[in-house]
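Justification of resources, computational component.

The compute hours requested in this renewal are based largely on the per-chain cost of generating structure records like the one below. Each record pairs the submitted sequence with a full structure-token output. That output is archived, and it is also reused by downstream analysis tasks.
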Amino acid sequence: MVTAFALLACEAPAPPPADLDAAWSEYHRVLEETRALLETSDQADTPTTQAEATRYLTGLIALHNQAHLHFSDPDHPILHRSVAIGNKWGFSNPDNLYLSARVEAGAAYRISGRLGTANQTTIGSYAGDTQDARAGDRIRGEDLVIEADGSFTLVLSAERTPGNWLPLDPEATSISIYQIFGDWEQETKGVFRIERIGTEGRPSPPLEPDETAARLVAAAENVRHTVRTWLAVTDQLSWIPKNTLARPREIQVASLGAWFVPGRFDLAPREALIVEFPVPERARYWGFTLYNGWSETLDYANRQTSLNARQTRIDPDGMIRLVLAAEDPGVPNWLDITGHPRGFLTWRVTSDVQPPQPETRVVALEALRESLPPETPRIDPEARRRAIEARQTHVAQRYAD
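The structure output for this chain reads:
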């Protein structure tokens, strides 16, 4: 659900103060106001979520400081991680690596590099902000012409060019690259570079105080905008009946052919939620993820808080049964709610047909085995430890420079 492009395409700030001291004061005033939004939110209902609110805010501050003060020059764009371990937001996908760069409408850009072996790679332009996001044309990695040495070059511009080409939205504000990893132990990330055509080799101009002041205030205002936007989304999702999922809906601001199925869990101690669904038809990817009330993924590196098609056991009857619980019940498809009695869950599917509606039921943890097929394996602590170690290895490699 996350719209990575929005970091560089948020609402236009009010005219900033030119004086750096005044901008610094305004920066802190807006951030204090944003902190108050989090502290007074209904989502701040446990000590854990209160602690996470502070972490969430600091991650957004760091992210927007980089986006607006370091990566905001459309003449010299740099692809940077718009969602990562240190800046989770927007119901992002733990199977994704999100890269984004600021661009200027009407210009032409070149992306070059190598794709890697991710399950899916999608490149495209975006316009608008989180509230009115609009995806421009996008291209899948498999539709690119790849050179004999494994490299590729893609031009995004208004005018068609020979070779790999993608129309650049006339109101584009960013270009994003989404890589989805299905097999965490085997798939590798790509290597990419972006350049504005016509500015190659040109130095950037010296930074001016007025420009720095404007970027500083924009960073704070877009932190506030991000928090407001996703608090509104969590408020909307809170209307989903507890321990159920909503109907699948196709979303156009993510990977091509993406379906999004949001839900909500609310479990008492010693309860478990079983989520059951058949293997989705013609799906090249699907993943199931848990979130807190701030739209952050739970710790997917060090805990099993997400599972995708390659990580999940399919029962002999062709059904997938996931189990949300606070304690490890020793089943393969356990999702660890990590101290969150309440939270959100999503099922993402990439397919050209609508995925099925998952069914849910709450059972007592003591009766869980009776509610699952008798052939459900038992996962001992050592097997779980190895599964977590594999997750840690992949995440470390994914976010390594």
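The mean pLDDT is 93. Residues 209-237 form the longest helix (29 residues).
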